[in-house]
Amino acid sequence: MKRGFTILELIVVMTIMGLILTVGLSSYFNSLSRSRDGKRKSDIKAIQVALELYHEKNHEYPKAAADKWFKSTDSLLWIPGLTSEYIRQMPIDPLNNGGDAPETGPPFNFAYYYYSYKSPTYCDQNGGDFYILTTRLENQNDQDTFPFKDTLITRDPVTGSCDWPHIATDPLWAQHLYVVTNP
Fold it and tell me: In the chain, fewer beta carbons within 10 Å around the N or the C end?
């Protein structure tokens, strides 16, 4: 009589191990995305502090030329004027594969975006009085994402219109954006 495992026993054990591995990897990758989102929020806060230091000294925020979004994929000093005097090193998104402006998703691109404007309507060129700093989060259920509810953000860089209709009508867009403005 031979002693050993039958093929059925081996298949059951391998199936159980596969399930455990699947659950473990899923939890691992979820924790990685939550960690990257935490870094994004921390980076945005550091940039916000640097912007306030800049404003305190210059009495305005760094300006964008002709209705332009600045993004962390542009360069290491992606917000002009925000030098080491205000922030040791400009943060970049952990993935930093962003598109031209925050509304470029899906697929959802990741970068930090900065926009400066003149009045509370968000649609003024040559800003300096107000700003929007935003990034896209990976966790769709994050409580810190911006509740758009048909809110207008800025002039659409493609059409020139002062709205983002797809953001207002598509909740998938809105639930991923983390937005801060000047205090």
Answer: N
Res 173 pLDDT > 80: no
Buried b (16+ CB within 10 A) or exposed e, 126-145: ebbbbbbbbbbbbbeebeeb
What is the model's pTM?
A: 0.74
CA dihedral of 54, 68, 43, 29, whole degrees rounded to 10? 180
Tens digits of residue pLDDT in 7-61: 999 999 999 999 999 999 988 988 998 999 999 999 999 999 999 999 999 999 9
| Tokens of residue 50, six digits | 């640097």
Q: In angstroms, what CA-CA distances link 175 with 60, 99, 150? A: 30, 18, 13
- How far apart CA 132 and CA 35 sit, in angstroms, is 23
Separation of alpha carbons 171 and 157, rounded Å:
21
55 in Cβ contact with 61 (< 8 Å): yes
- Measuring CA to CA, how many Å separate 106 from each of 71, 97, 121, 174? 17, 12, 27, 12
